[in-house]
From TrEMBL:
NCBIfam families: tig
Record-linked InterPro entries: PPIase_dom_sf, PPIase_FKBP_dom, Trig_fac, Trigger_fac_C, Trigger_fac_C_sf, Trigger_fac_ribosome-bd_bac, Trigger_fac_ribosome-bd_sf, Trigger_fact/SurA_dom_sf
Organism, scientific name: Paenibacillus riograndensis SBR5
Annotated PANTHER family: TRIGGER FACTOR CHAPERONE AND PEPTIDYL-PROLYL CIS/TRANS ISOMERASE, TRIGGER FACTOR-LIKE PROTEIN TIG, CHLOROPLASTIC
Single annotated GO MF: ribosome binding
Protein's recorded name: Trigger factor
Length: 446
């Protein structure tokens, strides 16, 4: 087989392939063995028609398309490997010649992975940040923990306020006609959560236990139910009960209830250490993002639309999987959000382009710096995955190999090592002082 590659644009070229006549003959044999099973020729059982009689009756040309379908994929794959190109989209194939006793010649217009011209990627400057937890941050976390461990107590003598849970009946109608989903009994609604139609919760605020009220609202123009979008509605509301969060006291008893510590001070010290560790990880992630974005911004690369579309498809699939883990699916999400699938894909396009660009640049940096993945590193990653999934490393390796994902694991490790390299070779610089920070100095200078 002969294969040649000619670039016609930056990311586009033509692959010309010639396959020998002997392989064409072998493909025709396979095509005949497939087609003859269904051939209906008087005097012969299906599958038993001799080849010469078949070709005499139907013509050898009747085998060509099946033979092409057999031969083309394997020939294209071999040609891609021989010319060392990396296609990123389905090729546009033009059959130049296919006939019995002749070579098979075809051309394929192929979009390939783009070339990346690296700019500066070592010595990149990133803002210096410290993983220090302020008193305000510690108090905010304590407040959040108080909220989590709050008790709901029934309030009989006060009107409902934001933050309360109102247990209500409601009966909604548009133009005096009830609509589907507009009725419920003893529904618990957290006021201020914005989980109902805009304007509904605000009108329940101030109602007391036993009160009745007509709540008038207008559905948003972009509401997911088209028959209600933009319509004025009236909800007849009855309040059965009002519940209010009662926060626990921040004292030693609270520390004992929520932790292994005996005193609040011990618990606060441990909590501060946890927050610092968490912030350290966040800052590490922020620094990694900063250096990768900077290296990508300094590089020159034209990304084919096909690569962006492929990444958008991956992102949509991942999002759908996350929805299913939460008991939803894509159709439900689109219905609730009032979006179309095209809207969602358009929202993801910018992030998809950024991901593709960053990964292309990281791949080229890894080659430039000879960053390689050792077998020990792969084994360590397999061991970590095995521990997470309660399987053996051998089982994980077999599963990945069966799925064709073992090379992807190698790529992921290489990606992380390349990001670590960029971080190690970056430079932390002090961020310029803000006006607020500079104010005390200016005041003292006066």
């Amino acid at each position: 087989m002969k294969a040649t590659w000619e670039k016609i644009e930056k990311n586009l070229g033509v692959l010309e392939v010639e396959v020998g006549a002997e392989r064409v003959a072998a493909a025709l044999d396979k095509a005949f063995n497939k087609v003859v099973k269904k051939a209906n020729v008087p005097g012969f059982r299906k599958g038993k028609v001799p080849r010469p009689i078949f070709e005499s009756r139907f013509g050898v040309e009747s085998l060509y398309q099946d033979a092409i379908d057999i031969l083309l994929p394997e020939a294209y794959g071999e040609a891609v490997e021989e010319t060392d190109i990396f296609p990123v989209d389905r090729p546009e194939v033009d059959i130049e010649q296919f006939a019995k006793g002749q070579p098979f010649i075809f051309k394929a217009k192929v979009t390939v992975k783009p070339e990346v011209v690296l700019g500066q990627y070592k010595g990149l400057e990133v803002p210096a940040q410290k993983a220090e937890i302020t008193e305000d941050e510690l108090n905010a976390e304590l407040k959040r923990l108080q909220e989590r461990h709050a008790e709901l107590v029934v309030v009989d003598d006060e009107p409902a306020a934001n933050g309360d849970i109102a247990v209500i009946d409601f009966d909604g109608s548009v133009d005096g006609v009830q609509f589907e989903g507009g009725q419920a009994e003893r529904h618990s609604l957290e006021l201020g959560s914005n989980s109902f139609i805009p304007g509904f919760e605000e009108q329940v605020v101030g109602m007391s236990t036993g009160d009745f009220k007509d709540v008038e609202v207008t559905f948003p123009e972009a509401y997911h139910a088209e028959n209600l979008a933009g319509k004025a509605a009236v909800f007849k509301v009855k309040v059965h009960e009002i519940k209010r969060k009662q926060l626990p006291e921040l004292d030693d008893e609270f520390a004992k209830d929520v932790s292994e510590f005996d005193t609040l001070e011990e618990y606060k010290a441990d909590l501060k250490a946890q927050l610092e560790s968490r912030k350290q990880e966040e800052l590490k992630g922020a620094r990694e993002t900063a250096v990768v974005d900077a290296a990508a911004a300094n590089a020159e690369v034209e990304i084919p639309d096909a690569m962006i579309a492929s990444e958008v498809a991956n992102m949509v699939r991942d999002f759908d999987n996350r929805l299913r883990q939460q008991g939803m699916n894509m159709d439900m999400f689109l219905s609730f959000s009032g979006q179309t699938r095209e809207d969602l894909e358009l929202q993801m396009k910018g992030d998809a382009e950024k991901r593709v660009r960053n990964n292309l640049v990281l791949e080229v940096i890894a080659k430039a710096e000879n960053i390689e993945v050792s077998e020990e590193e792969v084994n360590a990653e397999l061991a970590s995955m095995a521990e997470s999934f309660k399987r053996t490393p051998e089982e994980i390796r077999s599963i990945l190999a069966a799925n064709g994902s073992l090379s992807s694991l190698n790529d992921e490790i290489s990606l992380r090592k390349t990001i670590d390299f960029l971080v190690e070779n970056s430079v932390e610089v002090e961020a310029p002082a803000t006006q607020e920070e500079a104010a005390p100095e200016e005041a003292s200078a006066e």
